[in-house]
């Protein structure tokens, strides 16, 4: 399924200008039909998979309890 730059920006949750810059720089693959740039939606599958993996890793890291500090001395 092909989307316009505006639809892609909404799909990715990014500003339209940023998506436009990525298209012009070649970071997002697109087809220019003479009027507008069309972007294939399927190329973002890996992006969303990596994003979910990163979120899971951050949640695991933040939920891990802190180890006891070995430098604490009892001053009693």
Secondary-structure blueprint:
Blueprint: E1 2-3, H1 5-12, H2 16-25, E2 31-32, E3 37-40, H3 45-63
Antiparallel strand pairs: 1-3, 2-3
Helix pairs in contact: 1-2
Shape: rod-shaped
Strand content: 5-15%
DSSP helix count? 3
Distance between the termini: 70 Å
| Rg | 22 Å
Widest sheet: strand order? 1-3-2
Overall number of strands = 3
From N to C, what is the helix and strand string? EHHEEH
**Protein structure class:** mainly alpha
Oligomer: single chain
Short description:
With 76 residues, the chain is mainly α. 49% of the residues lie in helices and 11% in strands.
Key terms for this structure?
single chain, 76 residues, mainly alpha, three-stranded antiparallel β-sheet, 3 helices, rod-shaped
Q: Would you give an account of this structure?
A:
The chain is mainly alpha-helical and 76 residues long. The protein has one domain. The protein has 3 helices and 3 strands, in the order E-H-H-E-E-H. It has helices at 5-12, 16-25, 45-63; strands at residues 2-3, 31-32, 37-40. The protein has a 3-stranded antiparallel β-sheet with strand order 1-3-2. The radius of gyration is 22 Å and the shape is rod-shaped. The N and C termini lie far apart (70 Å).
